[in-house]
Each structure stands twice: as C-alpha cells, then as structure tokens.
Amino acid sequence: MRVLFVTSECLPYVKTGGLGDVAGALPAALRAEQVDVRLLLPGYPGVLERLEGVKVLRDLRGLPGLASQAPARLLVGRGVDGAPVYALDVPSFFGRKGNPYLGPDGKDWSDNHLRFAALGRTAALIGLDGDGARGRGAWVPDVVHGHDWQAGLAAAHLVHPMWPYGGAKRPGTVFTIHNMAFQGLFPPDVLPQLGLPWDAYTPNGLEFHSRVGFLKAGLVYSDRLTTVSPTYATEIQGETMGFGLDGLLRARAAVLEGILNGIDTDSWDSAGDPHIVSHYDGTNLEAKTPNKAELQRAFGLTPDIHAPLFGIVSRLTDQKGIDLVVEALPHLVEKGAQVAVLGTGSAALEQALAGAARRFPGRVGLVLGYDEALSHRLQAGVDVLMVPSRFEPCGLTQMYALRYGSLPLVARVGGLADTVTDVTEDSLADGTATGFTFAPVTVPALLAATDRALNLHRRTELWRQVQRNAMGRDVSWAASARHYVATYRAAMEAAGR
Ligand code: ADP
Ligand code: GLC
Predict the structure, then answer these.
(1) Binning pLDDT at 50, 70 and 90, where does residue 371 land?
(2) Residues 359 and 217 in one domain
C-alpha cells in the first residue's frame, strides 16, 4: 500500500506544533506495518537543505492552481530517514525563513491561500506525468493522506471533475483534522487562482459563510476523515468545538474516526534522552532528581528539591488556557510550589507571565521562546506538567510527561481526557492512575486539581507508584498505526481501488 502524506510541518524539517511531531513519527510506525509512505512538503529552507540526492521530477511553472509564472518545481530527494520525500520548490512561496505561516510582523502571510493551494494541487499530481496520464514507472499513491487546512485542497482536486485523474482510478483520500480552530478561510475572489472551478463554490463544496474554506474542502471531499483522539471526534460534532462545521461533521459521522496520536518513544525516553543530565526509568526514580535541580537553575528558581515543581511547555494562546494559570499562580506560590513555563505566543500572555515571574522571583520562572532541547529538560525536571487547555484535539506534552514520570495535570477535554487517568481511590487501587484531570476548565477547578497534586506529592510512596503507572502507559504509535492502515483500506475501497 502506497500512501502520500501531505503536510506543511514535519520534524526535523519544520515544526510549529504537534503536527510536526506527528508527521515526523507516524510514517515510521506505518512503515513497520508495511505501508510505503512518502511525504510531500512545501520546499521551505529547512526541507530543501536536508534532502539528499535531489532530482527534479517536473516543472510546474504556469500550472493552473499554482497561480504564478514564477519558478515552480516538484523535487524528490532522500529524507533524513532515507525514505523519498517530495518537495514543492517554489522559492517565491516557501523560500522564507522563520515561521511557515506568519511574517516577521506576526501576521499571516498575505498569499497563504496561494502557497497552500499549490501544495494541494501538487499532491493531486503525484504519480501522474505531464499530460495527466498515470506516469509510467512512477510511484502512484493508493491513498493521499492530507493533514489540516494547508492540505485541504488535495482531495478537492482529486475528486473534482475539472481535474480527472488521467483516466486512472484516483487514489483514496484521508483527511486528518489536527485542529478545527484553524480553517484556512479566504475571500471568494481568490477562487480563480486556486485552479478549482466556480461550481465547487457552494455550501456543499468549498463555501463557508461566503468565504473559501480549505479545511472545509478537506472535510467535504475526502473519502475518510480522522481526528487525533476519540473524545475530540465526538466533541467536534457539537456546536462549541465544531467551529461552525459541526453540522457537516455530523452529516459525515459515518466516515469520521478518532485515532489517538502516539509519540516518538525514541526521542522521548527518560532512559536515553541526550538532552537531560540524569537518565532514569521506573526502577530508579531517584535519578530523576538531578534533572529537577538543573531545571531550577535554568529557570532561575530557588534550589530546593523538595518544592513541588509544576511546568508548562506550550504555545501561549487562548486554546491552551494559559490565562487560567496566570490567575492560579499566586495560590500555587503560596502553597510552596514552583512553576516553570517555556512558551511563546500572544503578547498579552507573554507579558502577564513575565509580570508574574517578576512578582515571584525564585518561585515562577519563565523562558519565552521556542527551544526543543529545553522542552526535554523541562519534561524530565518537573514533578507536574500542566495542560489546562480549553480544547485539545490530542495534545502531546502530557504524553511526553507520562514517559518522564512527570505527572500530567490536564483539563478533561479532547485527547487529554483520553490519555490521562485521574488519581482516585479506585484508580490508585487498580494501578491505572497516571495524573490529575479537571473539569470544567475554570480557575477554581484547576486549583482544586493542583491542591490534589500537592497533597499526593507529600505522600512519596503513592506518588512514586503513580509515576511508575504513568511511565508504563503505552503511548507508542503501534496500535494507532494499525488503525490508520484499516482507514486507508476503507478509503481505497471508497475510491473503487
Ligand atoms: P499544539 O500542536 O496544539 O501546539 P501539541 O501538544 O500537540 O500542541 O504539540 C506541541 C508541540 O510543540 C510539543 O512537541 C511541544 O513540546 C512543542 N512545544 C510547544 N511550545 C514549545 C516551546 N516553546 N519550545 C519547545 N517546544 C515547544
Ligand atoms: C494540533 C492540536 C494538538 C494535537 C496536534 C497533533 O496542533 O492542537 O492537540 O496534538 O495537532 O495532532
């Protein structure tokens, strides 16, 4: 089975969030299931500089849907893991350093619709030769698997009659929603530049409240839909978390599944992580302590291995509930806790956290910025990792925390609810307790959970037991990779392959 992964992020080439981790790790798990996965990525500098043995497959200049006469080529090279990677090399679109979606002013690039229309258009071309026939000897995907709005138009191009798949049966299409909050909405006058016909611009097609919706296109035109946790798959069919697309998702519920993300258990391994100062596993948890001492130094916290240390690694946005933490900080500090925050995002939240760090020196430590190595050190060093998100399709940091015996304290939403088992008398007794969950997502509920964590932290033996439960929890990709294979089969069947 051949699967083309279409994504705008993938570790180690480019990452702004969890999509990068997922695209970086899931292909390897699929290969273990005998799936032949190849990636199609935008030709960002971070991609082009890492590919080896690059060949030009096709000149795409002037192709409808690329909306430009500027140089545009489809390249293929060997990726960091040796597997072939396709790159859409359009320097005028992707040859920009920094964040893939935002300019230096922090605002979306004004041509994002063109940049990601080109990505979707190209995805639909892979395996075809110049005149749209099935390329002889070419690698032809059985399934095109798009991720998030940036890949949303791939399925539209594959199924829309304006672009028949060269007489050959088109690939099956799978579309994965990583976040309903990012929809790729643009004014209707961009449509002629996308290479899709006006008759696709209807409420049953690309139109979403008088705009063109890239995410919506993925949801409408794909054979199968998935999202990244079972609970989120249910939540997005309701009004609060459906962001206006809940009706469409209810209508397509029969082809929508939640497949829980896993994590890369080689990169996130407390027993071998090269970023941390002391390695440990469930049998020598005392060896976790030097990581805590090192983290206290790194975040300017008072050296005290007994002070309960809470941490956060996150985008600083409304989704992540960071404002709740800001409100909760005085209470936590009063109870003797320390808090370390690594993040970057909204200016208002950055300022609020910086204010708290000034107000509570030695108790609240803040590093503003994006730092992969420090995120590993934080995961290993903290006692509790907080994720108080208002919504969370899956969330990865709580799973990293589980692996490091740092107990997650999370809002009971989306994938957080599916991956963390609250400490209760029952879950302690049956050995399933792995952390602390709270609902609703309010400051009082958060504080009630932090109080429970602080109480358990005083009971060293019980704490250790929960740490061991957490570290023993299966957070690998194996089961989910098998689930994706079944979904790919269903998509191929839907496409008549
Ligand atoms: P989302 O994709 O919504 O941001 P996830 O929990 O799925 O949330 O993934 C976030 C990823 O980004 C994790 O790998 C996390 O460790 C990483 N991350 C977030 N903020 C930072 C940061 N400031 N520095 C380093 N890594 C970060
Ligand atoms: C999104 C979600 C996050 C999820 C990630 C990877 O960024 O916000 O919850 O873990 O995608 O699927």
Answers:
(1) very high
(2) no
Pocket test for ligand 1, best of 295, 315, 349 (most atoms within 8 A of CB): 315
Total domains present in the chain: 2
Answer yes or no: is pLDDT of 166 > 70: no
Please state, in angstroms and rounded to a whole number, the distance separating the CA atoms of residues 222 and 171: 10
269 domain-assigned: no
Ligand 1 pocket check for 21: Cβ under 6 Å: yes
Parent domain of 454: 285-472
The arithmetic mean of pLDDT across residues 59-71, rounded, is: 76
Among positive and negative, which fits the CA dihedral 210, 212, 216, 221?
Answer: positive
Q: Which one of the ligands is nearest to 416 CA? A: 2
| Among 19, 21, 313, residue to substitute to test ligand 2 (most atoms within 8 Å of Cβ) | 19
Centre of ligand 1 to C-alpha 483, Å, is 24
Nearest CA to ligand 1 atom 12: 17
Residue 95 lies in a domain: yes
Which ligand sits closest to the CA of 340? Answer: 1
- Do residues 175 and 90 both lie within one domain? yes
Task: Note the pLDDT tens digit of each residue in 122-135.
Answer: 999 888 765 445 55
Answer yes or no: is 279 within a domain.
Answer: no
Domain-embedded: residue 274: no
Same structural domain, 257 and 316: no
For residue 395, pLDDT over 70 is answered with yes
Measured from the alpha carbon of residue 342, the closest ligand is 1
CATH number of the domain encompassing residue 300:
3.40.50.2000
For 43-54, what is the HEC assignment?
Answer: CCHHHHCCCEEE
Q: Tell me the two tokens of residue 293.
A: 């001492």
> Is 23 close to ligand 2, i.e. is its CB under 6 Å away?
no
**End-to-end CA gap in the chain:** 11
Q: Which residues contact 402 (CB under 8 A, 6 or more apart)?
A: 408, 419, 420, 434, 435, 470, 471, 473, 475
Mutate to test the pocket of ligand 1, among 312, 366, 397 (most ligand atoms within 8 A of CB): 397
